[in-house]
Amino acid sequence: VQLMVNPFSGALIDRIGYDLPMMVGLCIMFLSTATFACGRSYGLLFFARSLQGVGSAFADTAGLAMIADRFTEENERSKALGIALAFISFGCLVAPPFGGALYQFAGKEMPFLILAFVSLADGFMLLLVMKPFKDQLKDSQRPKPPSVPIWRLFMDPYIAVCAGALMMSNVALAFLEPTISLWMEDNITTDNWKIGMIWL
């Protein structure tokens, strides 16, 4: 779902700015994680996961756009993007053991309720730094330079190499996520915190 929504969220952010799409993305992620906490059926969990992809498409893209807009010098922008991506990797590293331990010792609902609270707190912090709505409307009405079509970006060899590297790294994780936990439950252990620790 995120793969399909990302091009549209990027075009929307290019037109109206990053503040409102980021807030929309955080609100959607709050709703999706709260739905995960309450969901019991496969259909509801599938809907929550799809909704999470939509929210992530808006929040992630808007976050990177905010960094690119706030840090205009190349050195500062590279450093800020590096810090942001490092925290993304940190979250991917810490979340599985943290979520596994919470799931085992506090129940299914607790990890998702904590994530929903984090999304809500992030939304409140965004309210402190985002521009007023009137200023956003003025900025969106200003003439902007024509944007480069996405197909032309993929023709750039550097972008193509980066996109391919990102795709392959995520493909490896996508194969592991649904299989390694089931294999460990069948062959090694049924403790959720131990299954989460394997991702470290």
Low-confidence parts: none
The share of residues in extended strands comes to under 5%
Radius of gyration: 19 Å
What would CATH call the architecture of the largest domain? Up-down Bundle
* Measured distance between first and last alpha carbons: 27 Å
Domain Major facilitator superfamily (MFS) profile: 1-200
Main location: membrane
Subcellular location: Membrane
Protein name: Vesicular acetylcholine transporter
Q: Which labels suit this protein?
A:
single chain; 200 residues
Describe this structure in words.
It contains 9 helices and no strands. The chain has 2 domains: 1-146, MFS general substrate transporter like domains (Growth Hormone, Chain: A), CATH 1.20.1250.20; 147-199. The two termini are 27 Å apart. The mean pLDDT is 78. It is globular, with a radius of gyration of 19 Å. It is mainly alpha-helical and 200 residues long. It is 85% helix and 0% strand. Keywords: Glycoprotein, Membrane, Neurotransmitter transport, Transmembrane, Transmembrane helix, Transport. The chain crosses the membrane at residues 20-39, 80-98, 110-129, 150-176. GO terms for molecular function: acetylcholine transmembrane transporter activity; xenobiotic transmembrane transporter activity. Pfam families: MFS_1. This is Vesicular acetylcholine transporter.
